[in-house]
Amino acid sequence: MSRLTLGFVSGMNERVAPLFDGRVTVEGVELITTYSDPSETFWRQLNFQEFEIAEMSLSSYLIAKSQGMDMIAIPAFPGRRFMHAQLSYHIDSGIKGPEDIAGKRLAVGEYQQTASLWTRGILEHDFGVSQYKVHWYMERSEELSHGGATGFTPPEGISFHRIPADQSMASMLVANEVDVATVTRAFRRDSNMIDRSTQIRAREGDWSKVKPLFPDRIAEGERFFRKHGYIPANHAYVIRGDVYRKYPWLALNLYKAFVAAKEIAQETLAESIPSGLIFGADYLARTRRIFGPDPYPYGIKANRKMLETIIDYSCEQGLTKEKQKIEDLFAPSTLDL
User: Which of 21, 114, 119 is nearest to 62 (CA)?
Assistant: First the structure.
């Protein structure tokens, strides 16, 4: 039995929970787990390779892998969402819809993070807003960012600015010092050392002037899914290269465990809806009507289009120099799954 460290993001979802309550085990492995915020987990792994197995930002993985960082991924994607649909705007900006973002100031947690990568790609390809026509503002400092580990510099031709250390995306948006941002973290209870929006929340500002860019996020999600056929993923799991070479069987065993955990979650999903959510069952039924019985497919075959798109976006946006091959990114034993 091999004892391996696993870095998991906080807010663990029901799709991986069975790995931690004993209902599912990884054959041949005893996991020693550490939970931290996604931004902290990825910062720790990219800078210090602390964990033998880790959840990882897809965008930062593509960049780090292209630079020769020694790790390999398995095609299990624990989190998906329509990241562009979480944007909010200040009503004094003159913005009425996503097409109006051209020429405006858009704040992101980090320029290279997966949410930003998907947002730029979707704004450009679905709404005609060129990444070169937006003024980008980044909240994270160079020292506490993914890009600090990968040597990030703004791509040529991009209007790039750093948010001052005493401000956050939330404080700047509510003060109309940026026009658009994702500020959901400013209203969560948790905080972390990386994202200033969890520390400088600016809740005392006039939030009545901040509105969701997509008032009906479900409708926008349905539009995107009908057009593209997938929900964008933002994380995968990676195995450190030295560990994978020592235990080549680990990739498939780990993948099978994640699949088994997700299957249990799918079977018990309806039972997990809190009784206080009056329309919880109706929402679940609506979600399944739109996205099918499994909105979180694992494996290469079910995710090839999504993976090819994020690879294209990364290269198109200047984060990676060449389009990478899926076969070089994922463990060979998982490529036919």
Answer: 114
